[in-house]
Amino acid sequence: MTPEDIRSILTTRFDTTLKIVDADSYQIETPAYRLLVILSAEQSWVRTLIPIAPAADAMTFMEEFLAANFDDTLETRYAVQQGVLWAVWQHSVAGLTAEDFQTAIDRSIELKQVGIDRAFQNFATKQVKAIVNIAKQRGDTLEQTMQTLDRFYAEGVMGDLGATEEIRTEMMTAWQYQLERLWNES
What we know:
Layout: H1 3-14, E1 18-22, E2 25-29, E3 34-39, E4 45-54, H2 55-58, H3 62-71, E5 77-81, E6 84-92, H4 98-114, H5 117-138, H6 142-155, H7 165-183
Antiparallel strand pairs: 1-2, 2-3, 3-4, 4-6, 5-6
């Protein structure tokens, strides 16, 4: 593939949303995402970047993002730079195929669409599993564990003391679901 092929693919795919910043940089901006495509100075490497979220919002889940880099994101990676969590992909221009470039763009956009939700879900699952393990070590049943969590909510140890009964019921239903789902896995 050549730098001209990259420009052609971007022009065909993104048409009116494509902004050619200069000979080495492109930007695609839509309401859903902002994709940057940058060629290295010697035009031998291409990189795509999509900002996902402020780094401060993602730091709690950094272990989950690094695990996703290892297990899930394939050739696209999460990275932190300039206070932002990014989806980043890079490849040698010479060895790049049009199909691989299109796939990389698709995966980058998908990571943007997922945002930090998947990392949060993985983090929450890990925390629920820890609660299940502790409850089981203590010899508690699922019902006893739910009672403990309900008491924690009632006492303000968890949740918001000012939460309405409806919100508290929703939270307890979510806890019940997660505990039932993970009880036999731990």
